[in-house]
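Please check both lines for our workbook:

___
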Amino acid sequence: MQYDQSWMGNGIIGGLQAGLVSLLAALLLFLYFHWLGRRHRWSYGRQIGWTFLLACVLTVSGDLWNLFYFNYAQLQSLELLKAKLALVHDPEHLGLRVLCELLGVALGIYLGWASCNASWRRRFGARHRAD
């Protein structure tokens, strides 16, 4: 699914912005699947797997499809290539944006997992006296 990328910058700035969108989507999806998984007693593998799949479909799939298409499609004319490239935001840095989006999904899942597994009371809670 391709979302509107017209507000993004070009080059590394656009890659970081796309990665941040993917990070936030993956974090929210992991928190949802963690909540759902606790109710249905899912393992972390199932929660992470569904989060990764859905986050990639929502944020990475459009750019990943364009990257695949421009590398393997039989474009018969220069006019067709120009028309297809005109529809893509920043086609020169498409690979960088896909990489940043995939890393953003992985980092978002990690941050969600770390926040759900942290023993916050033990680390930041009241200290017990040993007297």
